[in-house]
């Protein structure tokens, strides 16, 4: 074993699997290795028969996931590269969607771009008071690239979702709650872990096979809604990712980050 720290940590307590993205120094950005580790955690560990629920969170208190790791993805320039990136990320989110028990995203900080897509792939979202969420992909002149459009459109409806994508704003927790993107926001003085524990209680209070039966029905409904969207979303991402406008915006973003590593990024 090497001394390298895993980008995703897992533990089981009280019938709940806790999955933690562990790249706080990178604002928990989602590179390919982290996406692979998340997929493995959900595809393998989450299928233990005794589990009642899964909680997905991230290390630190600044970022749940600051989006895809643009420094790594910047080298992906062709249509084939873009399609492979979409498929890779979508496979991870599909593993979350297919988890046979409820998945609760515990938003400990910002969830931006692909990080916001990761959050809404979960069944529920519970946020700390200071957390925020932003579908900011348009600031890089691209569309959703992790397969999150179907989730967003199901939550908000087509008209509101399309406007939200076009505005590309970062929403404070209470505004996101009002819109329906979040299910609960902690009080300012209440720890996120405490809020999540309370939220999970109804699922822990019933036999695992009953919870799984409930999730099976919900998953069937969700799958029927998302299938028609996937091909269109994938094609739109490939087209926008490979357009010159995206590379211009991506370069501006990367240029901004180089001198300001200590303070982190906003998008």
Explained architecture:
By secondary structure, this protein is an alpha/beta fold. It has one domain (8-189, 238-260): 2-enoyl-CoA Hydratase, Chain A, domain 1 (Alpha-Beta Complex), CATH 3.90.226.10. Helices cover 48% and strands 15% of the residues. It is built from ten helices and ten strands. It has helices at 32-43, 70-73, 79-97, 114-121, 149-156, 158-167, 173-179, 192-204, 208-241, 244-257; strands at residues 8-13, 16-21, 53-58, 63-65, 103-107, 110-112, 124-127, 132-134, 170-172, 184-185. A six-stranded mixed beta sheet has the order 1-2-3-5-7-10, sandwiched between helices. Strands 4-6-8-9 form a four-stranded mixed beta sheet. Helix 1 (32-43) packs parallel to helix 3 and helix 5 (149-156) packs across helix 6 (158-167). The longest helix has 34 residues, at 208-241. The radius of gyration is 18 Å and the shape is globular. The protein starts with 7 loop residues before the first strand and ends in a 10-residue tail after the last helix.
